[in-house]
Each structure stands twice: as C-alpha cells, then as structure tokens.
Amino acid sequence: xKRWALFLPFGIFVLLxxxxxxxxxxxxxxxxxxxxxxxxxxxxxxxxxxxxNKTVADIKGQVHLVNVWGTWCISCRVEHPFLVELAxxxxxxxxxxYKDDNDAxxxxxxxxxxxxxxxxxxxxxxxxxxxGVTGAPETFIVDxxxxxxxxxxxxxxAGNWGPLETIWSSLVAESQAxxxxxxx
Length: 184
Known about the structure:
Elements: H1 8-23, E1 44-46, E2 53-55, E3 64-69, H2 74-88, E4 93-98, H3 102-112, E5 116-122, H4 126-130, E6 138-142, E7 148-153, H5 161-183
Parallel strand pairs: 3-4, 4-5
Antiparallel strand pairs: 1-2, 3-6, 6-7
C-alpha cells in the first residue's frame, strides 16, 4: 500500500471538520426558499374568528403578506405592533396561526390588535410544513396571482421593512397596472 493512502482518512477528517466549522457561521436566513416564484400551496383551513374555511383562492387577486405566527412565539410579540401599523397603512396581511391554542390566539388578537384580513388555524402545521416554515415568525410576500415572491424569516420591524416595502410596492404597482390593462 502506498504511504500517502495512510493519510487519506486524516485528510477527509480535516475537510469534514472545516466544513462543520464553517457551517457554524452560516445564517439560516441566507438560505433561499424553494417556493419563491412558485404558486402558494393549496389549503383549506378554518379562520380563527369565525371558523369559515379559507383557501388559496382567498389570497389571489391582491398582494398579501402571509405571516406565520403563534402566541407562544416571543419574536411574534416583538413583530406584532409593527404588523398592526402596516395594516393601518393598507398593507393586506393574512395570518397563519401555527400550532397554537385558538382561545389564546383570539385573546392575543383582542388584546394586541388584529392586523390580519383573516388568520387561519394551522393547528396541525400542515400548511406551514408545505411552506417550508422552520420557525415563527416567517412572512411570505404573495403577488396577486398567488405566487410567492419573497420569504422573510424572523420578525418584520421598522428597521428591516425598507427592502420588503420595495418588493411590496413594486408588486402592488404591477397588480394595479395589470388591472388597468384588463379593465380597459
């Protein structure tokens, strides 16, 4: 056997060690969503407020932020006042209440304000799994055709809304232009 072959396992060990060390410094937010530029997944879930079923058809026709949240989520509590402010400014937000207690969620919305056009109850986490959610909060920008155009992990705040607002505004303008062309 060649002498260099004896060092092969050591070389592999060093390479794997380097790759694992490098992985410690990767930001999971830098991993793009496989669903960007794909259709929002099909779903049929009851809303928190009145238990009426909503489907993907209910988010088509207008640009929406789709926000995955839960009362157990500390970052969601940080994000919530800003979402309420965005809703007051006309930003349409749909909520996905992720693996949560309905009574606690309703109390949360009653106490802190309800920024959602509607919020569905994803008690089993099926829709969230279909979206590839790794934790709450996560927010998707969905265009008027029901296509996911951007995914944001973590809370949306005044400090990070700027780039998201640019995407939001361009999609709203695109939707309005399409409506004008279609309406003429």
